Amino acid sequence: MKALSIRQPWAWLIVKGYKDIENRKWSTTFKGKFLIHTGKSFDDEGYRWIKAETTIELPNKDEFDKGGVIGIAEITDCVSHHSSPWFFGPFGFVIQNPEELEFSPARGKLGFFNLDETELNL
């Protein structure tokens, strides 16, 4: 199955249903279900921005799962403009139907990559 690495805390916001756009510098024609993989790095600046600009109760930084699959969702479009407050561009993958999954460690890669679901705790 296709997977995409998304840094924390952004991946957490997606699987919890807060964030409906994943911003990228590149576009995609991919549409469909994909696994949400978290990289091992953490976006500290993004964490501070979310705390300052939203009322979302985020976990402490050390409570985020990193380095594995945490959810599944569906990409329905790739846009260059969107009314979502999460759109920063230049491209946004429109995300629907997020589901949180039990954390399953897995190595990530750049861009979309394939993960064998049988090797995960899904």
How would you explain this protein's 3D organization?
The protein has a single domain, classed as Hypothetical protein (Archaeosine Trna-guanine Transglycosylase, Chain: A, domain 4, Roll). The protein has two helices and six strands, in the order βαββαβββ. A six-stranded mixed beta sheet has the order 2-5-4-3-1-6.
Note the run of SSEs as H and E: EHEEHEEE
Q: Label the overall shape.
A: globular
Oligomer: single chain
Please tell me the CATH architecture by its name. Roll
Radius of gyration: 14 Å
Considering the chains and any ligands shown, give keywords for the structure:
122 residues; mainly beta; Archaeosine Trna-guanine Transglycosylase, Chain: A, domain 4; 6-stranded mixed β-sheet; 2 helices; 13% helix; globular
Short précis:
This protein has two helices and six strands, in the order βαββαβββ.
